[in-house]
Amino acid sequence: MAQSIPPGDIITQPNAKVVFNAPYDDKHTYHIKVINAGGRRIGWAFKTTNMKRLGVDPPCGALDPKETILVAVSCDAFDFGQEDTNNDRITIEWTNTPDGAAKQFRREWFQGDGMVRRKNLPIEYNP
């Protein structure tokens, strides 16, 4: 029955964007706090528009109501000014977990007919 109820809200800190600061000759890591503000367990997963530059660890998981996790977003070294960074962003998707499901992330939670919500966090690079 969890599939017919839309997933509740999540809170991300930062809320609107991720900022990396120069120099870009070394790997940078930025931490994002993800909070399940809803009343049901959710499965969540991060996606990125630039797999070779941006990484997320852990990339997916499950959160109980009011539970929080700290996620590391990393930016590998790259040639700033020589590569297009305009469309870089990470996206978190989340959905309710099925009733009675174990608290172990499963990709199929996102492949049924349940509602999946998403939030985009643009990446900003300061020179």
TrEMBL record:
It comes from the Eukaryota. InterPro entries: Ig-like_fold, MSP_dom, Nematode_MSP, PapD-like_sf. GO terms for biological process: oocyte maturation; positive regulation of smooth muscle contraction. Its main location: other. It is found in: Cell projection, Pseudopodium; Cytoplasm, Cytoskeleton. Coiled coil: none annotated. The keyword Cytoplasm applies. The keyword Cell division does not apply. Signal peptide: none annotated. Keywords: Cell projection, Cytoplasm, Cytoskeleton. Residues 9-126 form the MSP domain. GO terms for cellular component: cytoskeleton; pseudopodium. Central component in molecular interactions underlying sperm crawling. Forms an extensive filament system that extends from sperm villipoda, along the leading edge of the pseudopod. This is Major sperm protein. It comes from Mesorhabditis belari.
